[in-house]
Write a structure and sequence with these properties.
73 residues; mainly alpha; 3 helices; 45% helix
Length: 73
């Protein structure tokens, strides 16, 4: 499946695999945020969420309340 993925590389061997994929022109490394563009579907999803929030701002949750729902291992 083609698309854009934003990943965090956690192992050295994974970094080497990514470098090989870049050399084979199978993936593109985008360093400059000016080159980073949202897809039309991503823009549409953001606009939809913004509209929903504007219609009912009380539906937003406090960040401290949300954090409290998750425990670190």
């Amino acid at each position: 499946m083609l698309g854009e993925y934003h990943i965090k590389i956690k192992k050295d061997y994974a970094s080497a695999i990514i470098e090989d994929l870049i050399k084979m022109d199978a993936v593109e490394d985008i360093h400059d945020l000016e080159d980073f563009k949202l897809s039309p579907s991503q823009i549409e999803a953001i606009e939809k969420e913004q509209f929903i929030i504007a219609q009912n701002p009380s539906s937003l949750k406090n960040w401290d309340d949300v954090k409290g729902q998750f425990k670190r291992p």
